[in-house]
Amino acid sequence: MRKFIVLCSILLSWQSFSKSAVGTPEAQTGIGFTLGIPTGVSFNHFFDKNVSFDGLFSYKSSNTYNKMTLFGGLVFHFPEYYFIDLVPLNLYYGIGAELSHKNWDDKGKDDETLIGPRISGGSGHWFEQVPIELNLEGALVFSIIEETEVDFEIFVLGRYYF
Length: 162
Prior knowledge:
The protein is mainly beta. 12% of the residues lie in helices and 66% in strands. The radius of gyration is 18 Å and the shape is elongated. The protein has one helix spanning 2-21; strands at residues 29-37, 40-48, 51-61, 65-84, 87-104, 112-126, 132-143, 149-161. The protein has a single domain (25-161), classed as Beta Barrel (Porin), CATH 2.40.160.
């Protein structure tokens, strides 16, 4: 419990330092959902208008296996990078890590825990009237622990910011 309190204190002080270091008066935090691969709950916290921390938790259950995915990383944003019919669209890319655990229902297969770097990129739109964003994102995940494999993920995500 003591380690958890120390870790939370360090993270909160780092967040306060990073906000003041980049000169932003107030950071924005968003929570939302993703639909696609993976489908889950998404989180994003902006340190300034061009840098944020992005994370996702996903759980999938099927007839053959149950899979939990957790990822997080830094994302670099380019607001209003291009326009389609006068609608400003943002471009972003990020780098981070992904952890996934697959529990097979078949008794002949071992459970898999995969860890590796994740490179993502996407495009989306911020709505001016309400604090909502909609994005289309794709990512390459290079699993290097337990097995070596490459996965491609693509999903639509929406977040509400407060």
